[in-house]
Inverse folding.
């Protein structure tokens, strides 16, 4: 069964997902496009040789009976409106992170989905689909290292542009750890603190970089995440889990080992798009398969809400310097 997909937002990640759905994945076909700039849609159609209709209004695309599922890959502040419209139309929707730009916006989506009585939303958190994180979760779940006590993590980018602000270290960068570490530990956060070490000379004058985020979970596991977005040397994601019986680390991306000029070396990636490229394929294939089977199993609207609540606490902790509570209501049975 081929699923007819409509895409709202044909910018960087939208184009990547359109290429995936048209050329890489099974059982999907992109039939409709919308972007605030019509010329962006025309360009994608020409580049990929698509047979797709362009809509000037995203709501017309959502309500087109030929469109069976929607990808929302537009600018973050538009996500809530479009996801709510998809739920109203009863159509499955894959929404890139963030699900909404505020925790309240995410909660509005959660409530709309519960009222609709059917899971329709998958959030674009791709790390749970990464083979390395999956292998790490298996080790933890099997009990190989006993109960997890501490996690030491890092999210490093070689550099960021001048438009990147201190709070974006949380809302754009840490947001992936906030989702994947919750999933890895099957636990929720209860507190957050942010510490600012000595600033790198490579950061813009307005940006505090690096930062260390300290999180505590309901079971008392302590997590430290270093966010260093002008680290200079590469795009580097680290995660080490210290358990009662041993330590497990996220595998490094595959890289050829070289012995040359008196050095033993392996390359480090510099482009974030390459680090999780396979995970993006797997997450979208999962969405398409779930649309076909009628049962959504990927990162849910509740997961999007949980990440947003934790992110809000981290941003507040950046400003206050204090340890702040992360207040999550109990998970509704709908998302069990
Ligand atoms: P982008 O290149 O700026 O693309 C966004 C596109 O949406 C642009 O073409 C933009 O047009 C269009 N747009 C803006 N408002 C719209 C509206 N009201 N209706 C329809 N289209 C609209 O941004 P991006 O990098 O692709 O990011 C898009 C989303 O994906 C963001 O939420 C981002 O956080 C997320 N993302 C996730 C990952 C991941 O790892 N999961 C990676 C990258 C991005 P204009 O250019 O004219 O504004």
């Amino acid at each position: 069964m081929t699923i007819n997909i409509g895409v709202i937002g044909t910018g960087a990640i939208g184009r990547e997902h359109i290429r995936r759905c048209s050329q890489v994945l099974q059982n999907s076909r992109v039939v409709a496009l919308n972007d605030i700039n019509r010329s962006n849609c025309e360009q994608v159609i020409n580049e990929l040789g698509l047979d797709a209709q362009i809509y000037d209004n995203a709501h017309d695309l959502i309500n087109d009976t030929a469109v069976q599922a929607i990808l929302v890959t537009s600018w973050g502040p538009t996500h809530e409106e479009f996801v709510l419209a998809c739920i109203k139309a009863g159509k499955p929707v894959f929404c890139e992170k963030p699900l909404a730009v505020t925790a309240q916006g995410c909660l509005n989506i959660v409530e709309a989905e519960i009222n609709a009585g059917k899971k329709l939303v998958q959030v674009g958190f791709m790390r749970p689909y990464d083979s390395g994180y999956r292998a790490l979760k298996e080790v933890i779940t099997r009990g190989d290292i006993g109960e997890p006590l501490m996690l030491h993590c890092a999210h490093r980018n070689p550099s960021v542009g001048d438009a990147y602000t201190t709070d974006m270290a949380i809302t754009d960068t840490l947001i992936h750890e906030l989702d994947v570490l919750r999933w890895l530990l099957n636990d929720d956060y209860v507190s957050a603190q942010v510490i600012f070490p000595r600033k790198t000379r490579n950061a813009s004058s307005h940006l505090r970089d690096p930062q260390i985020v300290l999180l505590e979970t309901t079971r008392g596991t302590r997590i430290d995440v270093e966010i260093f977005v002008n680290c200079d040397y590469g795009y580097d994601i680290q995660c080490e889990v210290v358990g009662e019986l041993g330590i497990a680390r996220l595998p490094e991306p595959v890289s050829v080992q070289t012995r040359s000029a008196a050095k033993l070396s392996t390359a480090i990636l510099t482009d974030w798009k390459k680090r999780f490229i396979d995970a993006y394929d797997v997450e979208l294939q999962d969405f398409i398969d779930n649309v076909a089977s009628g049962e959504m199993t990927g990162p849910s609207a509740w997961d999007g809400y949980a990440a947003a609540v934790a992110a809000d606490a981290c941003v507040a902790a950046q400003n206050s310097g204090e340890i702040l509570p992360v207040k999550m209501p109990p998970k509704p049975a709908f998302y069990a």
Q: What stands out?
A: Residues 8-14, 34-37, 40, 58, 73-76, 78, 96-97, 124, 126 surround NAP (CB under 6 Å).
